[in-house]
Specification:
Pfam families: DeoRC, HTH_DeoR. Helices cover 36% and strands 24% of the residues. The relative contact order is 0.10. The radius of gyration is 23 Å and the shape is elongated. By secondary structure, it is an alpha/beta fold. The strands form four sheets. The chain has an eight-stranded mixed sheet with strand order 6-5-4-9-12-14-15-16, with helices on both faces. Strands 1-3-2 form a three-stranded antiparallel sheet. Strands 10-11-13 form a three-stranded antiparallel sheet, covered by helices on one side. β5, α7 and β6 form a beta-alpha-beta unit.
């Protein structure tokens, strides 16, 4: 077997098993320890692995967070059914906060003309809601993050501290045992303040966000009340939510009844 062929097989093994040892390379590909080490050195030079004591692992993968309009096109169907369900939880007279996430934008799109007050740091959410007659809009002023379409900074935090609302709807990049995470600290600081101002904190996250940990943690699982998603999570994740007293609502758009799991029920 040529070295190039063996290197591809080693990478394939790593993708499936996360790590490989020199002994495994020797056994799997019938080569000496010196040859196995040379293979790992070659892969390290190509920045395809990280060498460890006696073996190697794959380097961490950091998914690039695309701009706002690109993210609107990511799992749009799932965002719509989550947003529709979230909008159905908003009652006439409610005072709510909508953050600047694309899934929360779907919630804004499904809001009717019922009388309510919306506070937001999203210029997109404010624009969408401006056509709905019954809704009063408070747009939080601050510095505009142009690519991701949110307002942030000291003035946003200061304004938020003056509002106390019934419900807050927030999106995330990841939700896991490590808490709720996003890609940008500036966004996370605003989200952290938002959840402090609400009686009920509702997270909107499609199934691809579950079990994911991103760069900046803005809240613990115990800081939220309800997660709305589009697919029933695996049992370990449901147990994690129950441990932290987080209710789960799985939205459904095929005519069947939505699945709701109350942490207070056995």
């Amino acid at each position: 077997m040529y070295q190039d062929e063996r290197l591809l097989l080693i990478l394939d093994f790593l993708k499936k098993n996360k790590r490989i040892t020199v002994e495994q390379i020797c056994s799997l590909y019938n080569v000496s320890r010196d040859t196995a080490r040379r293979d790992l050195v070659k892969l390290e030079e190509q920045k395809l692995i990280i060498r460890t004591r006696g073996g190697a692992i794959l380097p961490p993968v950091h998914n690039e967070i695309k701009g706002y309009y690109h993210r609107l096109q990511t799992v749009p169907h799932e965002k719509k059914i989550i947003g529709k369900k979230a909008a159905s939880l908003i009652n006439s007279g409610d005072r709510i906060i909508l953050d600047a996430s694309t899934t929360v934008q779907a919630c804004a799109e499904y809001l009717g003309d019922q009388r309510c007050t919306v506070i937001t740091n999203s210029i997109n959410q404010a624009d969408i809601l401006s056509s709905k007659q019954g809704i009063r809009i408070h747009l939080l002023g601050g510095e505009l993050e142009k690519e991701h379409r949110f307002l942030y900074g000291e003035s946003v935090i200061e304004r938020l501290s003056n509002y106390y609302v019934d419900k807050a709807f927030l999106g995330v990049v990841g939700i896991s045992e490590n808490g709720l995470t996003v890609a940008h600290e500036e966004d996370g600081v605003v989200k952290r303040k938002i959840l402090q101002q609400a009686k009920q904190v509702i997270i909107l996250a499609d199934h691809s966000k579950l079990g994911i940990t991103d760069f900046y943690r803005f809240a613990d699982l115990s800081d939220i009340d309800l997660l709305i998603t589009d697919k029933t999570p695996p049992k370990p994740f449901r147990e994690l939510l129950k441990k932290h007293s987080v209710d789960l609502l799985v939205a459904d758009d095929d005519g069947e009844e939505d699945e709701f799991e109350n942490v207070n029920c056995d």
